[in-house]
Structures are given as C-alpha cells and as structure tokens.
Amino acid sequence: MSFANEIIEWYLINKRNLPWRATQDPYIIWLSEIIMQQTRVEQGTPYFNRFLENYPSVADFASASEDEILNQWQGLGYYSRGRNMRQTAQTVMEEHGGYFPKQYSELLKLKGIGEYTAAAISSFSADEPRAVVDGNVFRLLSRYFGIDEPINTAAGKKLFTELANEVMDKARAGIYNQAAMEFGSLQCKPANPLCSTCPLQLSCNAFKTKRVQLLPVKLKTQKTRERHFNFVVAIKDQSVLMQKRQGKDIWENLYQLPLFETDVAVCADEVLKLPGYIKAFGLDTRIQSISPRVKHLLSHQRLFAQSIEISGFTEPDPANSEYFYADATVLATLAQPKLIFEFLKKFI
Length: 348
Known about the structure:
By secondary structure, the protein is an alpha+beta fold. The chain contains 16 helices and 8 strands. It has helices spanning 3-14, 26-36, 41-54, 58-63, 66-73, 80-95, 104-107, 115-126, 135-145, 154-167, 173-186, 205-208, 268-271, 275-281, 328-331, 338-344; strands at 225-236, 239-244, 255-256, 259-262, 286-290, 294-298, 301-311, 323-326. Strands 1, 2, 3, 4, 5, 6, 7 and 8 form an 8-stranded mixed β-sheet that branches. A hairpin with a 2-residue loop joins β6 and β7 (301-311). The longest helix is centred in the first third of the chain and has 16 residues, at 80-95. It is elongated.
C-alpha cells in the first residue's frame, strides 16, 4: 500500500470529529485555518465556534469593527491575524461579490493567506491538488523519508513542499491533506510519537535508523528580545485608566494599562521617578500595591511585567491625554492582551 493510502486509511479510522471538517465552505475553512495557526485545537475550538456564531457569513465578518474582532480574539495571541482577517473579509465583499474564493491562485492574493493556508482552503473546499505543509507534515515526511535538511530554511521548505506534492493522492487532495496533518498531530507526535502502533513503522526510515527523536532538524533562528513593562493602575470612581496601543509593535491597537517600559527591571519607586511618569501623573503619587513580577512569553520576545497601583495622582487632561477611564462594562468591550486582563482581575 502506498504512503498516501496508508495515511488516508489510518485517518478514516482515527480522525477527530472537528466542527470544520463537516463542510466544504471556504469561508468556514478559512476561519478554522487562521484561528488554529499557532494554537492547539483544544484552545482554538471555542474561538472557532464563537466566531462562526457571531459572524456566520463573510459579510457579517466584514461589517464588524476592528475593536469587535479583536475583542472576540482576546487570548488567542498573534493579534495581527484578527486584523488581517477583517481586511480579507472586506476584500472578498468588494472584489469577489461576497463569495469566498476556492482557487489557490486567488486565495494567495488575500491578506494573511500564504501558501499553506491557500493550499488548505483550496484542497479542503475544492480538492485542488495542492499539498498542505505545516509542522505536522514537515515532521512526518522528515521522519518517514529520513530527511535531515532543516525545515526552517528556504532550501528545506522547497524540498519538503516538492516531496509533499509528489507523494500526495492528487485525486483525493482534501482528505489526504487532512490525513497527513492529523497523522502528524496524533500519531507522529513531536515528543513520544506512537511508533509501536504506527502503521508506517516497517517502512519508516527514522524508526529503522533510530533517529525518530533527531528528526526533523530545525536551525536556531532569531534571538529572543527581553523587555521590562511597568503598568500603572489608576482608579477613580470604580473606573480604571486605560490607553490604546499605537504603532507597529506587539498588541497593536489593543488596550492596556498606562505603560512605562524600562531597559532593565526596576522597582516601583524608580518607576515613579521616570520623566514620562511624572509628566503623566505628577510628583505626589503614592504606591498602594505592587503585583508580583510575571514573565510572559511571546514569539521572539520575553516580557517581564509588574503592575503598580497608585493614588494621589494628577488627573490627566482629557483633551491632551492618550488615557481614558473605563468601568467594568466598557472594559468588557475592549480587546486586551492576556497579561492586562490578568492584572485587572484584582481591581475590576
């Protein structure tokens, strides 16, 4: 039996019953694919269900505001995905008459859709013979064929993409792609793969050469940047002072507590002496409480953050300030990074 047939046969018996597998609607498949990027199925499924309930069509998604989308996205991370999705939905309405495209070449023209996502949508919705190559497929192919070319280099991506297209069942592209991804996720797992029950065991190069734990090869890339965030909690009449993040940085257009970033970790007393802090809140503020410093990991960034509750602060001038007060009702509508959400739970 061929590699592709083995994978498909395994899939038909072992596949998970996931909600987006019961449709060929490219809009619904797009929703699931973008939401599940960098996200475990268990975490992403409630988000998928909520988005589909709130935005059952691409027209509904396109008509939502960015704040609404980001609020629904809260907790998923990589917030640029949510912003890109809204732009894509609007493009589909304007340039495709509200019909989400199925063709690989057309999908690649949409914001936030790369080769992987375009292959997934086109094959799942229209059986277009384009191989989907995600982390699960990289791992499966690397181990089965014994390939030690690093998967995160241009040469590696080209090699594995060509191999994936060569071994796929072109007549059943959609089900093959689903099968390869599911096999990598459930059977050929990153750690502790289920080799003893694997139907590919006898023909797997990595198993025969005892290299399962050595493949795939991935080169170390970008260094992790370390940042130190000092958030200020200023409360008045059961409302907390907030600001909207600006610029091309993490958490773009999300809402946070007033932030004072420092090059190194500093104590709360030192934060109150920063020129930017004094300009915003004056010289006579007092510290009411300080949270424990927490570590928050992002892609290529390591954040160390504390929140400092203050009193006796000078009121920011509403006409010339980036800050605004938000009570519990308003806060519920603001998309906040998970870090801010956790800090605020104590106060609001």
